[in-house]
Amino acid sequence: MRSAARLYAVQALFQMEVSGQTVERIVREFETHRFGEVLDEGEMAEGDPKHFRAVVDAAVNWQAKIDQLTDRALVAKWPIDRIDPVLRALFRAAGGELVEMDTPPKVVINEYVDVAKAFFPDGKESKFVNAVLDHMAREEKPAAF
């Protein structure tokens, strides 16, 4: 359920950025309509609403710090505002867990690499996500390594 909550958090952060809607409106929409939604392909995972809300809140509340962490993990020519918006949302969600929550960094890395694979099943993005999150985690929580 936490894995599904992470996927939903990335979707919510992406939707906030592209639509300009408030965090409250997006969270309410996801909790009311998206969790457990039945689609043609089958039923969506229920997700953990408490974890979803904690990840989104941490990503929003700590966005400046998270973006700085991400920028330091990226090469100089590719600041966070130049990367794919889905990846930007993913780094913010993962960064929220690294900065604000007690989730072990290795769990954060593994979980969000899996999220990257869900969004980019045929690409190299998961390896990129792994490298960036590893750098961010080592900077934010060096004692965990």
Automatic annotation (TrEMBL):
One of its GO terms (biological process) is transcription antitermination. Residues 4-138 form the NusB/RsmB/TIM44 domain. Keywords: RNA-binding, Transcription, Transcription antitermination, Transcription regulation. SUPFAM superfamilies: NusB-like (SSF48013). One of its GO terms (cellular component) is cytosol. It comes from the Bacteria. InterPro entries: NusB-like_sf (IPR035926), NusB_fam (IPR011605), NusB_RsmB_TIM44 (IPR006027). The keyword Iron does not apply. Pfam families: NusB (PF01029). GO terms for molecular function: RNA binding. NCBIfam families: nusB (TIGR01951). Belongs to the NusB family. Involved in transcription antitermination. Required for transcription of ribosomal RNA (rRNA) genes. Binds specifically to the boxA antiterminator sequence of the ribosomal RNA (rrn) operons. HAMAP family: NusB (MF_00073). This is Transcription antitermination protein NusB.
